Structure formats: structure tokens, C-alpha cells
Amino acid sequence: MFDILKIAGRNLSRYRRRTLLTLLLIIIGMVAVLLFISVTGSFKSMMVGQITDSVLGHLEVHRKGYVASIDTLPLNLNMKPSAVAKVEEALKQDKAVEAWSPRVKFGGMFSNFTETTSIRINGVDPAREAATVPLLPGRMLEGPKTGPLVEKGQIVIPLLLSRGMKVKLGDTVVLVATNRDGSVNGKTFVIRSITEGISGPGGRDGYIHIDDARELLRLKEAEVSEIAIRLNDPAQLDRVTESLKGALGVTSGKAPDPMAAASAIPGDGAGAGAGSGKPQLEVHTWADLSPFASLARMIDLMTVFIKVVLVSIVLVSVMNVMVMAVYERIREIGTIAAIGTRPSRILSLFLAEGLLLGAIGTVLGTVLSLVAIYGINLWQPHFAFGQQSDLVMAPTIGVGQVVTVALLVMGVAVLASLQPAWKASRLDPINALRHV
């Protein structure tokens, strides 16, 4: 085998210019693919982390029909205490769950005593919310970044609302909300902090203490709108989702049809409804709840497309070289066939040339790609996305991704050599020696 590779290398060096041009095409393709994978993959991971660690958590549990009607934040679809207890018991049994936070969500009116506007409010337990979405405290542009996220009688508002209503830290404002019975209630709050804008869900949300939310809405029971869950390892998301569905008797985590939500079965939401035999809870991943999931899937699709382009480049360039090599060396092939060289050995010789082209191009392309990735990390270019600015690009790439692309390139290089090599191994020695 070593002798065949040695001969193949010598044959490639005989046509130096053509070999270098082919290698250059393979290297450019490798660099383009690996850079694209590293940059887009890092962008995707960063944005997913921003969404899961600042707003949603990795998973959320709701009462059946709540997500389908989430734009109205329906209080009649809150989870009752028995359902909350069942969910928490299931979460305690899974060691992959790091933290979870119950939330009371509702829509209300925000007033500075001269102007009024709408606001989405999250009533949270400060300590549990900070443990579930650890990046949330760091989003505070004004106000304390340490200590409790919010205390009773205080409110955290988004930057857009602060600017639009011309309010600042320490100002007293009023929240007005309609409870489940239709009565209107109001409560004064002091602005504790102002959060930066963020793309996607939660970009315009305010935060108050969960006890204040229940008092404002006059909730008689310790019910919640949702339970957000954080995992130790996001890679365990699918497994934990299925495990939690099984523990809660959930058949599907997909957002239900809005018409189905309108006819949701009343009850306490603790597993199967009384007399209904149907699950009354739903489990949703961050991808089910965030519009960014579509962008993430588009990034994955684009990665597949650029790999197809790489395959095309390698296939065409290597096949062109090998076809020309066979055509120019017909008499040579006829000579070695005439002296007794087996067709299988001739086949192996040309396949080895394709393999060497793919291997050398892969090694050089990988090295240049890693150098480029390292250079980008040293440069640390900044960019903006949605309402977020000054984000730092920090591309990374895993060993598995590099190995996958490398094997793909080498495999396609050998595949591109197969037809010309087969043709060379089947040449008739007499006809080949007559070739001019």
C-alpha cells in the first residue's frame, strides 16, 4: 500500500500546476465550510443561550391550551396548586434538572400618573428566577445587579418602556390589571431596575414579586401560569423532555390548536382531567416557544447547502484531474498492463491519487481554517442583532465537525476518482499502446 501511495504522489508531482490548482480549490472549499460552520454555529449557540438563560429557560410546563392562547395570557388557564405539586415532584426525580421557577404572567396597564400604556408582567420568585435564567440579573442597565432580582412593592421594567413613559429609577408607578372575575385592580410600585432590550420573547416584559402578582390579581390559591426549567446540560433537553412528558402523562409537547384551547377542559390541570382521561399539562422546549427556532433551523439548512457546494467542488475538480490523468497516460497504462500489472493494482493506483489529493487538501484546509478561527477570536469583531448591540463574535468548532467534513472531502475525492480509475484498469493493453 505504501508503494502505491508513493507512486501516486510521484505521478501527482509530474503535473504540478494542475495538482496545485486542484488542491487550491479543495482548500478554499474546506476553509469556507469550516468557517461558515464555526461562525454560524457560534452565533446560533449564543442566541439560543441568550433566549434560554435570559428569558425562557430550557423547558416550560403549562396547562393544556395556555400556549395556544399565550398572546392574551389567559388567567383561566393557570396551573392549580395540585398540578404545580405534581410537576415539582417530577422535576425533583430528574438529576439533569438544575432549577425551576414558577411564574404568574398577565397583561396589564402601566401608568406614570400622566400617561398609560400596556405591559406584560411576570410575577416571579426572585431567587428561583435568577437560578433558572442566570443571565437575567446581568441585563439590568440601571439599578442593582446583585441581591434579589425584585422585592415586594418593586417593579423591573424594560428600557423601551422607560424611555417611552419617561420614568426612571425610584419613580412610583401604577399597575392596573383585570382579574379572572373581570374586576379591575390597581397597585403602586417603585421602579427598582431597568433591563436592556433583548430580541425575541421577553423583550418588553416587566417583573414583579410573585406575591404582588397574586395580590394584584386577587388569586386565592398559589396557582401559576407556567414553570420554567433549567437543565445542567442543554444536550439532555430531548431526554428530559420525553421523561417529563411520561411522568406527567403528556402525549404531545406541540402547541395545541387555538380552537382546541377554546374548549379546554376545566379542572385542576394535575395530569389527567377528572373524567376526561386526557392529559391536562403540556411540556414545551424553548424551540416550541421562540421564533428564533425558525432561524436556527435555517442556519442548519444553510450548513447542509454549503456542504453540498463543497462536495460539488471536490467532485468536479478531482474528477477533472483524474480524467485528464487517464487520458494523458493511456500509453503508460498500456505498458504496465502489458508487463503483467493486474487491473486491480492499476485501479488502486488511480484511487490512491484521488485519496492523496483529498487528504492533502483536507489537512491544509483544516490548518488554515483553524488559524482563521483563532484570528477571528483574537480580533473579536462586534455586531448587532435585533435590539441587542455590541455582541462579540467568538467562533468555535468541535472536533467532531472537523472530522466529519474531512472524511466527507476525502470520501468524495476517492469517489470522484473511481470512474476514471475503473476506465484505466479496463483499458486493453494493445489498443492503449497504439494510442497517440
Features of this protein?
14 helices, two-stranded antiparallel ribbon, elongated, 2 domains, alpha+beta, 52% helix
What this model shows, in words?
The structure is a single chain. The protein is elongated. It has 14 helices and twelve strands. The strands form two sheets. A six-stranded mixed β-barrel has the order 2-3-8-5-7-6, surrounded by four helices. With 436 residues, the protein is an alpha+beta fold. Helix 2 packs antiparallel against helix 10. The protein has two domains: 2-50 and 293-434, no CATH class; 57-284, no CATH class.
Quick description:
With 436 residues, the protein is of the alpha+beta class. The protein has 14 helices and 12 strands.
* Mean pLDDT level: 86
Uncertain residue ranges: 253-277
Beta content: 15-25%
**In total, how many domains does the architecture comprise?**
2
Give the helices and strands as they follow along the chain: HHEHEEHEEHEEEHEHHEHHHHEEHH
**Rounded to an integer, what's the Rg over CA atoms?**
31 Å
| Topology, number of strands | 12
Shape assignment: elongated
Assign the structural class, choosing from mainly alpha, mainly beta, alpha/beta, alpha+beta, or little secondary structure: alpha+beta
Number of helices: 14
Which strand order do you get reading across the main beta sheet? 2-3-8-5-7-6
User: Could you tell me how far the N terminus lies from the C terminus, measured between alpha carbons in angstroms?
Assistant: 31 Å
Q: Considering DSSP H and I runs of 4 or more, what fraction of the residues is helical?
A: 40-55%
Main beta sheet? 6 strands, mixed, barrel
